[in-house]
Amino acid sequence: RGIGLAVTRFLLEEYKVRVIALSRSRTPEIEELYKKHEGSLHIAACDIADEQSLTSTISSYIEQLGSIDALVLNAGSIEPIARIADPTVPLASWRSSLEVNVLSLVVALRAAAPALRKSVGGGRVVFVSSGAAIKGTPGWGAYNAAKAGMNSICRTFAEEEPSIVSVAIRPGVVDTEMQRVIREKGVGHMTEKGHQQFVQLQAEGKLVMPEQPGHVIAGLALEAPKELSGQFVSWDADEVRDFRKD
Q1: Domain Ketoreductase spans what residues (predicted)?
Q2: Which one of 97, 104, 147, 166 is the catalytic residue?
Q3: Which are the contacts of 119, defined by CB distance < 8 A and separation ≥ 6?
Q4: Rounded to whole angstroms, how far apart are CA atoms 107 and 129?
Q5: How many CB atoms lie within 10 A of CB 34?
Q6: DSSP state, 209?
Q7: β-pairing, 232-234 with 41-45?
Q8: In the Cβ-directed half-sphere of 14, how many Cα atoms lie within 13 Å?
Q9: Rounded distance between C-alpha atoms, residue 216 and residue 233, angstroms
Q10: Angle CA 22–243–101, to nearest 5
Q11: Banded model confidence at residue 22, pLDDT cuts 50, 70, 90
Q12: Stretch 50-75: mean pLDDT, rounded?
């Protein structure tokens, strides 16, 4: 759903490439896409927080297909939405956030890196980040830390693996399930002004549609230029203008 679905659709329909989509569940939307592209779309049920499951899923598809050219790291969770000093919030919820938002990146990169290094056109990794990586939005402590960690992993991986282009993308305030969670659960944890900004964006129809950053991410997954490696770039920045769909 959301950005992941949009990226998958553009890769299949515009770039005509084979896509392996990892998802906890098969939504009606992904099922519909599968029926249209049964020969090119592979859907794998996978819990990305489970190291063994994620590693074996990626490894088995690489072995089956023989190669992999790009990795889009899009999974993420904003919860728990809570103040850092709130003693009622179990530390386990922070651990869960880090497992999904940070550690899964390491697991995926470890599994995919050998194949990405061998990619004929040069392997690429797109990290779907957030403005939270460089902000301190109250109530988003776990998410802020996780996305800052993602950007750090992107920068470091770019230095460690010079043959692979690694880019972190800021997708904007996108109309996804995460926005619903923010509107419904942010009260009392975020500042009143901060929470109202998100409520107002939705009410005024000003949220970014998933297809907007999705088109940029799909393009970068296949054609990201070397000079962007290690960078954190907004989906609507001049650096990625050529990948936007106006």
Answers
A1: 1-177
A2: 147
A3: 67, 68, 69, 70, 164
A4: 17
A5: 17
A6: P
A7: unpaired
A8: 18
A9: 11
A10: 35
A11: very high
A12: 94
Cα gap 133→127, rounded to integer Å = 12
Among 17-31, 72-86, 91-105, 202-216, where is mean pLDDT lowest?
Answer: 17-31
Q: Residue 240: which residues within 8 A CB-CB, separation 6 or more?
A: 169, 216, 219, 220, 228, 233
- Distance (Å) of CA 123 to CA 72, 119, 193: 11, 5, 42
- The mean pLDDT of the chain is 95
CB 210 within 8 A of CB 6: yes
Catalytic residue among 129, 130, 166, 229: 129
Average pLDDT rounded to a whole number, residues 181-198:
95
Q: Give which of 174, 222, 246 is closest to 18, Cα–Cα.
A: 222
The pLDDT tens digits of the residues spanning 218-227 come to 999 999 999 9
User: What is the value of pTM for the model shown?
Assistant: 0.95
Task: Check pLDDT > 90 for residue 38.
Answer: no
Across 106-113, average pLDDT: 98
- State yes or no: is 185 an active-site residue: no
| 3 touches 68 (CB < 8 A) | no
Write down the CATH superfamily of domain 2-243.
Answer: NAD(P)-binding Rossmann-like Domain (3.40.50.720)
Q: Which of 130, 143, 166, 229 is catalytic?
A: 143
